[in-house]
Design brief:
Layout: H1 6-29, H2 33-39, H3 43-65, H4 73-76, H5 81-104, E1 109-113, E2 116-121, E3 124-128, H6 131-161, H7 164-172
Helix pairs in contact: 1-3, 1-6, 2-6, 3-6, 5-6
């Protein structure tokens, strides 16, 4: 059984907390409509950081449990109630923002085509947008991504914060 040393566990936990903090900052900055459009490219390092943490978590989970199968309730078993509440609130917030964004954009995405702000779906323009509408939809998409990243990094922060012995103890009781 692979047991990650405390230094590596603390480093991955801190990276997770840093990811949560950066995502919260991006969420707050998204209310400046013009800034949100320019900040999309800064989401790439956050997604890369998430995927690196995800790989570490999956391989660690495989080594400690012997299976690649992941149950979402494993994250909340044996944890304090605030972890469970925060986890479900983050997931509900993401689903709410996603549905709100999908409704507001008529299942299209704001884009610039031939110098025009348009709402497009499957490469076809649905309607022309004003600059305010375009930046509003882009910032709304940015907030949705930021909430998704907050939730994903929260999962990693919880996973790496609680040592295996506590997780194993919770499974045995």
């Amino acid at each position: 059984m692979l047991v990650m040393n405390s230094t590596a566990r603390m480093a991955t936990w801190r990276i997770s907390i840093l990811g949560i903090g950066a995502s919260v900052v991006f969420f707050c900055l998204s209310f400046d409509y013009d800034a949100a459009d320019r900040l999309f490219r800064w989401m790439i390092p956050l997604f890369l950081g998430f995927f690196v943490l995800q790989a570490f978590m999956l391989f660690h989970h495989r080594a400690s449990t012997g299976t690649w199968r992941w149950r979402w309730n494993e994250l909340t078993e044996g944890k304090p109630i605030w972890v469970v509440v925060c986890y479900y609130m983050l997931m509900a917030s993401y689903i709410g923002y996603f549905l709100w964004s999908a409704h507001a954009s008529s299942l299209g995405s704001a884009a610039i085509v031939d110098g025009q702000y348009v709402l497009k779906s499957h490469g076809q323009p649905l309607k022309e947008l004003s600059a305010d509408e375009y930046f509003h939809l882009r910032s709304q998409d940015f907030r949705t991504l930021a909430i998704l990243l907050i939730g994903m990094f929260f999962v990693h922060a919880v996973y790496w914060y609680y040592p295996e012995s506590k997780r194993a103890t919770a499974d045995n009781t």
